[in-house]
Amino acid sequence: MDSADNDFALSDAQVIPGTYLEETISIQGIQVKRLRVPGRVKDKKRTLKFIPYWSWGNRGDGDVLVWCKTDQC
């Protein structure tokens, strides 16, 4: 998950396990699968967007989160 696709502090996000949607986006001309996963950010339901780790490096300055908390801890 990276800040280029998500407009919140990534450390505040929690994944809600279950279904997700997959979509194709273009990053620097390369077709990449992005996941849209239900989640929470500070107790508000949000859609979390995830891209493959290898594809975030050239999207500008921003945070990246490789591991994400779940709301079932």
Please describe what this structure looks like.
The protein is mainly beta and 73 residues long. It has one domain (1-54). The protein contains no helices and 5 strands. Strands 1, 2, 3, 4 and 5 form a 5-stranded mixed sheet that branches. A hairpin with a 2-residue loop joins strand 2 (21-27) and strand 3 (30-41). The radius of gyration is 12 Å and the shape is globular.
Terminal Cα span: 19 Å
Radius of gyration over alpha carbons?
12 Å
Shape: globular
Please, what is the oligomeric state? Answer: single chain
Coarse structural class: mainly beta
What number is the mean pLDDT? Answer: 88
The helix tally amounts to 0
Largest sheet entry: 5 strands, mixed
Number of DSSP strands? Answer: 5
- Into which percentage range does the β-strand content fall? 35-45%
Count of discrete domains: 1
Helical fraction: under 10%
- Element pattern in H and E: EEEEE
